[in-house]
Amino acid sequence: MDDRDEPGHDTGELVQYDRERHRDRLEGAVRLSANAMMLSLVVALGASCAAPARASEITIFLNQATASGVRELAVGFEQATGHKVDVSFQAGAALNRMIVSGAAGDLVSLGLDQFDDYIMRGKVVAGSVVEYARVGNGVAVKAGATKPDIGTPDAFKRAMLDAKSIGHTNAGTGPFNTRLFQRLGIYDQIKDKIKIIQGRLVAEAVAAGDVEIGIQQTNVIQPVAGTEYLGPLPAELMEYGRVGVGLLAVSQQREVANAFIKFMADPANAALIRKGDMEPPER
Question: How much is the pLDDT for 92?
Answer without folding.
Answer: 85
